[in-house]
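Entry 14. Two folds queued back to back today. First construct below, sequence then C-alpha cells.
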Amino acid sequence: MEDEIDGLMILGDDLDAILDILEEVLQEEFSAAVSNAQTREIVCDCGKKYKTKGGYDRHRATKHAENEREMATFTTSTLAEIVNSAVEKIKVKKVFNASIRNDITGFRFELEEGSQEFSLLKTIYESLVKKGDAEKFYSNFYGNVAANASRYFKGVTRNAATLLATKVADSMMLFCKQEKQTATNSVTAELTDKQKAGLQYIGGYVTKPVQETL
C-alpha cells in the first residue's frame, strides 16, 4: 500500500512537471500570437490578404517558396520536355491533318537559352507560376508565341508550327500544375514527419512515468 502511495506521489510530481512545461509552451505561443498580430492587413504580392504576420509567413513558406523552386527548374531542357510532350500528342491523334502529322514527326526542337524567344517563353511561364491566371497565360501565349509560331518552331510548315504552339501551351499548363502538386506533396510530407516526431516525443514523455508505476 505504501509503495502504491509512493508511486502515485511520483506520478503526481511528473504531472506537475508536465503541466509546468505545457504552461510555458502555451505562454510562448500566446506571446508569438500577440507579436504576430497586426493592426493593418498584410497584402502579399499575389493579392492575398492576411490579418496576422504568422498567417502571411505560412503562406509565403508553403506557396511562394515552391514557386521559386519551380521557376528555377525552367531551362531549355524543361522547355524541350514540354515541347516533345506536345509533339507526341499531335502524332498520336489522327484527328489532325495527315500532312501536318507527318511534318511534325521529323521535328526537332532547338532554342538557345539566351535567345529572345526562350526569354519570352520563360517570362510567360513564370507569370503563370506566380499568378496562376490561366486566362492571362493563354492570352499571352497565343498573342506572342502562337501568332509567331514559325520563329519558335523552325523546320516545319506554318500550319504545323501554329498547331504545335497551341499544344505547347496546353503542355506548359499541365507541367505547371504537376510541378505545383509535387511541391505541395513535398511540403505536406515534411510537415507530417515533424508532427509525428513531436507526437512521439510527447507520448513517450507522458507514458514513461505511468509505466514506471505499474
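Second construct, same run, same settings:
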Amino acid sequence: MLSHFCSSAKSANTKIIQAFQVICLRMIGNASWYVTNIALHNNLKVTTIR
C-alpha cells in the first residue's frame, strides 16, 4: 500500500518517506548501522519505495 501511495509522490517527498521507512525497518529488525538498506529490505521481505 505504501508503494502505491509513493508512486504518485514528488521526488523530494519520496526520499523523506523512504528514509522514514528505513528507520522504521531498522528499529523493527534491530539492525546495526552497517547492514545495507537492500539487505534489510530483503531480510524483512519488504518492497522498496522506488
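Quick look at the second one. The chain has a mean pLDDT of 85. The longest helix spans residues 11-29.
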